[in-house]
Amino acid sequence: MTDTLTKNTMLEVRNIKRDYELPGGLFKPKKTIHAVKGVSFSLERGKTLAIVGESGCGKSTLARMLTFIDEPTSGELYIDGDKIDTRPGHLTSEMRQKVQIVFQNPYGSLNPRQKIGDVLGEPLAINTGMSAAERRDRATEMLVKVGLGPEHYNRYPHMFSGGQRQRIAIARALMLNPKLLVLDEPVSALDLSVQAQVLNLLADLQDEFGLTYVFISHDLSVVRYIADEVMVMYFGEAVEYGTRDEVFSDPKHEYTRTLFKATPRADVESIRERIAKKKTASAA
Amino acid sequence: MALLQIDNLTVEFETANGWFRAVDGVSISVDKGEVLAIVGESGSGKSVAMLAVMGLLPWTAKITADRMLFEGRDIQNIDPAERRKLIGKDIAMIFQEPIASLNPCFTVGFQIEEVLRIHLGLGKKERRARAIELFKLVGLPNPDERLSHFPHQMSGGQCQRVMIAIAIACNPKLLIADEPTTALDVTIQKQILDLLISLQAKTGMGLIMITHDMGVVAETADRVVVQYKGRKMEEADVLSLFENPKSNYTKALLAALPENATGDRLTTVSAFFDGTPEPAEAR
Ligand SMILES: Nc1ncnc2c1ncn2[C@@H]1O[C@H](COP(=O)(O)OP(=O)(O)OP(=O)(O)O)[C@@H](O)[C@H]1O
Ligand SMILES: Nc1ncnc2c1ncn2[C@@H]1O[C@H](COP(=O)(O)OP(=O)(O)OP(=O)(O)O)[C@@H](O)[C@H]1O
Ligand SMILES: [Mg+2]
Ligand SMILES: [Mg+2]
Questions:
Q1: Residues paired with A22 in a beta bridge
Q2: Contact residues, B window 143-172, toward A, CB-based 8 Å cutoff
Q3: Gap between the Cα atoms of A36 and A15, Å rounded
Q4: Cα angle vertex B57, ends B51, B62, to 5°?
Q5: Mind listing the pLDDT tens digit for each residue in A130-158?
């Protein structure tokens, strides 16, 4: 890695790896899965890196390493100029506030017994000296920002639809004013309108506070819209990495091209074609 | 006779601010061999309506309908033992949040084999063979090894494919797929959609596809229902919906597609649509 950190680098990752050990059984040997096989990149403050890739190629594993939830097997991580000591227990609380994650499955990451207002207020209670009334105001404000309302404050997670829970997860991650936000499929559960609303909110926050995003998504039209840089992962490796325009206009790797080709088409001509095909098939 | 026919379904939940109507007089029907897509606002009652069909809503929900028929048979007042025989076998559902719908305490192999044991009475060897075959169909790598994995050892999309495998395990007559491909990249999404469509062509399965992805709608649906705030806004065959959307809400939805972005912000529905529900079109 020849890259040197500049003042503008928010995140730099050098040859990061993560293995999982699967315990063996009586007749089965232990097995190691190389989920992330040495990924490097660097991202400037206020920019968005989108990560796409095949299901199971290690995107969420990478996201968990960037947010200190999983310890890398090897490799280095620099955030906001600091080299991160990724060993458990060595993280400063300042760093913990600076970096937040929105998980891929919102339901699993919400405590079913906790009211939504408390879900949002909790990070403030733990990390700041805010009064209960202040926390309540901030939480209510955030609910409105993500397209929910004050009436949702006292409800429990199971009372929400999938897309509403996703917005709660985004709201929670924003409560501490993070500088780096890692979003794992944040809009895949949202309808187009709420998706637009959330993407606009993310863009506003980026303009206003210079937030940096790592944005994992399967939706190439969203990636194209939101990303400054794009990384394509395949079996634990970054097989393609460049600016959005480079990747979309001139994909180098075979998998990237396959990906573009598989994108569903919503134009009237394609629909007509498909229906005609279906008719002949059922007539045969 | 429709495979599934729901007339005037209403679902209400009791909340701190009184009764909340999640589904408001919705009528839906699907024929054998048909693909019906349901799209619409988040929170508009798509999942709740389908969970009502499955009988899986919590007891706090108040459900009323003029009719809820599956193959002409009343499934609203069905005896619980009869329902258990039907659900998971003839009517199967791919749930919206795959990781949350799998049991974290059991291996995925056990979970799919249980379904095969309970509904089809398969023996141990046959179950395992069929489970491997199903995992292969949904494109899970190393299917035989996967059987011994727990959900937390798999990626989001892998869990979603396990759910899909479980749902199609007994060749259901009606498959309700609630956002079945949200966690999948487009190549595997394509493989799954092709799989569902070919199953459907082969067995005449009816398919209800709930999705936010207009590309998925365009590539699979025969007919489309658009929901907003618990109500049906529009119902049309797929071509008419894209070519000539009738309700303002549908128009607004299509305008919110990222590929239709103008300027540096996306169009939201409220920019287009004042939120007054128009009366649903009679079918
Ligand atoms: N705790 C674990 N133990 C063992 N293997 C794991 C564990 N977590 C993930 N894996 C494996 O590591 C690989 C990468 O998983 P990861 O969740 O990072 O994929 P992903 O790219 O996020 O996929 P998706 O798009 O489906 O969410 C997968 O093959 C998965 O089975
Ligand atoms: N147990 C419950 N108690 C109270 N309200 C509920 C409950 N379950 C669902 N709701 C409410 O019912 C409405 C419809 O929810 P539903 O899950 O059907 O939405 P959806 O159309 O599937 O949305 P999404 O696209 O986000 O999944 C939502 O406003 C939700 O908050
Ligand atoms: Mg993932
Ligand atoms: Mg839903």
A1: A31
A2: 145, 148-149, 153-158, 160-161
A3: 10
A4: 110
A5: 999 999 999 999 999 888 899 999 999 88
Q: In this structure, what DSSP letter does residue B265 have?
A: B
For the cut 50, the answer to whether the pLDDT of residue B60 exceeds it is: yes
What pLDDT, on the 0 to 100 scale, is given for residue A78? Answer: 95
Q: Which residues of A touch B141 (CB under 8 A)?
A: 56
Summarize the confidence of residues B226-230 as an average pLDDT: 90
CB B230 within 8 A of CB B23: yes
Nearest to A79 by CA among A216, A178, A2: A178
What distances in angstroms separate CA A184 from CA A66, A84, A96, A188, A211, one per listed residue? 12, 21, 18, 9, 16
Computed over its alpha carbons, how large is the radius of gyration of chain B? 19
Q: Give A203-237 pLDDT, tens digit per residue.
A: 988 998 899 999 999 999 899 999 999 999 999 99
Q: Which residue of B has its CA nearest to A260?
A: B186
User: CB distance A54–B187 less than 8 Å?
Assistant: yes
User: Residues for chain A: how many in total?
Assistant: 284
Q: A111, A115, A157, A156: which is closest to A136 by C-alpha?
A: A115
B153, B152, B218, B220: which is closest to B192 by C-alpha?
A: B220
Which residues 24-83 of A are in CB contact (within 8 Å) with B? 25, 31, 52-56, 59-60
Please identify every residue whose CB atom is under 5 Å from ligand 4, which is an ion. A 161-162; B 47, 96
- The answer to whether B258 and B266 are in contact (CB under 8 A) is yes
ipTM score assigned to the predicted complex: 0.85
Phi-psi region of B58 (alpha: psi -120 to 50; beta: other; left: phi over 0): beta
| Residue with tokens 């007339």, as numbered in its chain | B7
3-state secondary structure of A57: coil
